[in-house]
Amino acid sequence: MALKCGIVGLPNVGKSTLFNALTCAKALVANYPFATKDPNIGMITVPDPRLDKLAALVKPKKVIPVTVEIADIAGLIKGASKNEGLGNQFLADIREVHAIVYVVRCFDDDNIIHVENSVDPVRDKIIIDNELLLKDLVTVEKRLDRYKKNTKGGDKTAVRALETAERIYKHIEDGQPARTMPLTPEEDTVLQEMFLLTAKPILYVCNVDESAVMTGNHHTKRFVEAIQGEKAEVIFISAAIEAEIAELDSLEERLEFIESMGLDEPGVNKVIRGCYKLLNYITYFTAGEKEVRAWTIQQGWTAPQSAGVIHSDFERGFIRARVIKYADFVKYGSEKAVQELGKVRVEGKEYVTEDGDVMHFLFNV
Fold this sequence. Notes:
The chain is an alpha/beta fold.
């Protein structure tokens, strides 16, 4: 399952610096608006110590982690929904991603221009929110017209869809993002069909200076208070520090630098894991001499669905799954040892895969 996250924000808030730290892709970083026009795309791996531990035990020929595609999207300004700046391009690029990494500037530096001429992360968030909401209103209006036509024949499903769409329109018109609207599973299907920008899950990244990485500052305090109703995750990182870490050549140098800064890990690791969790994804593993590999699935998927991410034939011809719990694999050191102790579980079609399961599928097509 390919996950694509988009880094968004106003110009000059640190988006491209963060992108470079995540991907080491060296996107253009410049002290002027719209330094990024077309989205820069990079692939990053999801840090998972469990994969490293399994690989150390199995010693496979290959180790394949989960990857996330990350896009550095052009900065937005007021009027984007009316195509001011790079408005249409910005909004179209957001539509292509599954989740949004929302960067806000929470540091003061007179040498770095702010497009609004002052640092105010709450205002910046409102600017972007308003543009996304306005664009979504246009999208829902078009869908309402379609539903109204469909209801003329007395189609009850179309009538319910129209009622749901009208509620969604009112919710957005009141200034609330679509993702905050409580919906039944049937209503949520209507929402998902619209591909609304404000329905996408959000991870907020407060870009702070070095002194505020651990505890935040007055800017982050105001910002956290402003998003209380959203139940969204907020991460404090210093894009400048992350850029320095990314420039270091060896793992040893990076670890020494991180320790010297009083950090337990690079901030980008938190961003990557945050992206991965936004869509309620979990990981299971396959482990053998040829490769140890991490696989992405949706939480709540059954064993056949989980097998399907390897190949559709695995799901279509699913017979059963052999499951080893990660803790057992690590505790006893090998699949053979776990099997000898009778701790390999054989599960059928109803089994719901758990995060960290080490699985082997039997199928026949």
